[in-house]
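It would be a great kindness if you could assist me with a short task in structural biology. Thank you for your consideration; the sequence and its tokens are set out here.
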Amino acid sequence: MAAKYAVLLSFATTCLALPSTVPAAAILNRRDPAVSSNDWDPVLNGDEAAKCADLAVIFARGTFDEGNLGPWVGGPFKDTLVSKASGVNVAFQGVSVDDYPADLAGYIEDGGSPECASSLGKAVQAYSSHCPDSKIAIWGWSQGALCARKSFGQLGDATNVIALGVFGDPVGVWQDSMEFPDIPESTKVLSYCEKTTPDPLCTDASEDFPQSATGFIERLAEIWEQVDSTHMNDAQKDAVKDLLVQLPKQAKDEIIQLGKDILGGHLRRWMLTPEHFWYGIDGTIDTAADDLLKLYGSA
């Protein structure tokens, strides 16, 4: 036991030697359509005359995402779904940035931000109450997938949720230490995980990472420094620059927990490799949009 705590103490000591980082790139405006959507705002702001959509979607973004959707998955998924939804009035909303910072601490310390789940649950309750005939879909990517799952414990009387959709869902690496609410039988789970170039957060992919805290952080940063940005849009390219600052900075802040997770066999929780970010690039969002619209038509 003494040796174990000595290891953790060494992690804390080495974090002081990590280089300081400059502030993150300018935060993208929460109203920027590339990373945000606020179609539910009239309802959430209490406008009694607010119109109801046929299909109302709320999305919980992933760790490090800007705006209330993010550039990696949420923003592209919104655009794809709306473009495919011929004859279907879609209202797309991101979880409030005021309630959910989408930082590494919320993911690593809580297994998905509880504040995100609460905010999402309240939004769904409000929309369901105002629009009982609308069909609601709850979606999330990465930490947002955990948030989306947790929100099912906070939906109150909302009974018109037809889908839980998740991209890169890390639930498998958290279930041994955390319980998640049951998903009602009336809600269809739509889950997408990259297995061709494996996403380590939802597969058993084996990446040869260093088994030391600082070594792991350095290796992960190195992978992102070498990432191929050929197929990225401008918002995603900007996000890579910000991620190269925020990932090592926030990981350094959580280095004690990283040390514990290494010793506890939970290093996969930290493997935020590029493969985990590809769902808005590799065509998965097209499949997901088709699946959701098919479900909407049959619900």
